[in-house]
Amino acid sequence: MHDLHGRTCLITGASSGLGMHFARLFARQGAHLVLGARRVEPMETLVAELRANGAEAIAVPLDVADETSVIAALDAAESAFGPVDTIIANAGVTAAGRSTETPLSALKTIFDTNVIGVFLTAREGAKRMIAADSRATGRGRILLIGSITADQTGDGTSAYSASKAAVAHLGRNLAQEWVRQGINVNVIQPGYILTEMAHDWFQTDAGKAQIASFNRRRLQPAESLDDMAVYLCSDASLHMTGAVITIDDGQSV
Is residue 47 a part of any domain in this protein? Predict the structure, then answer.
């Protein structure tokens, strides 16, 4: 595992699921943490846990689809720990159902959070990194959390899959745009993990059948992302940018 001491990391969607998992992981690796989400209470409980274990962490209210909220979160991060040099754009939502039955409100929520929210988070983070002279230090790290559905087709996931395909291409474009500013942008595409968002589905008969259809007939553990996530956010990944990396326990093979 690569050391993250001296890094200040903003993690979006940190009130549950992978965001909460990454917070605990990065705390163990020594990063200063700024946890952002719309639900503040779960993050405050997590911050108390992390601090009890010696970590430096704060929680900030954050709606990634609101530019003012994103700016305020990064302002709070800088006030607490100084310039942010690491971003994990993890916040995401879904709305299962056939496209003919997906209301416009759900479609807007998916794209506002999964695409616009990722763009705003990465863009504001990059502005701060450039202002802190990332071009000279080469320490800027932005990690976007996508999904294997970006490369798949299936019933009930068209809007979500399209939003995650946008995330993958956005990651490549931002990497190219900021490559000379010392900012590395990479994307991890996980497979299906038992997070809060997916829990109810995988308790249904159809969800259980989906698990049985995977090559290894199991859900992927969140820990399977740990090594790559830490590497991509560490100094060791100096020469890696523009990558879209699938880690899915062979679910898509």
Answer: yes
Which pair of structure tokens corresponds to residue 108?
A: 């807007």
The amino acid at 229: A
Residue 166, domain CATH? 3.40.50.720
> Does 96 map to a domain?
yes
Residues 95-137 have pLDDT tens digits of: 878 889 899 999 999 999 999 999 999 999 999 999 999 999 9
Look at residue 157 in the predicted model and tell me its pLDDT.
86
Distance of alpha carbon 44 from alpha carbon 47, whole angstroms: 5
The catalytic position among 22, 111, 119, 160 is 160
> 11 - beta bridge partners?
35, 88
* Residue 93: partners with Cβ closer than 8 Å, 6 or more residues away: 109, 110, 113, 114, 197
Q: Which two tokens stand for residue 35?
A: 């946890």
The reply to whether 160 belongs to the active site is yes
Those residues with Cβ within 8 angstroms of residue 211's Cβ, 6 or more apart along the chain or in another chain: 192, 202, 217, 218, 219
Phi, psi of 200 (to 5 degrees): -65, -40
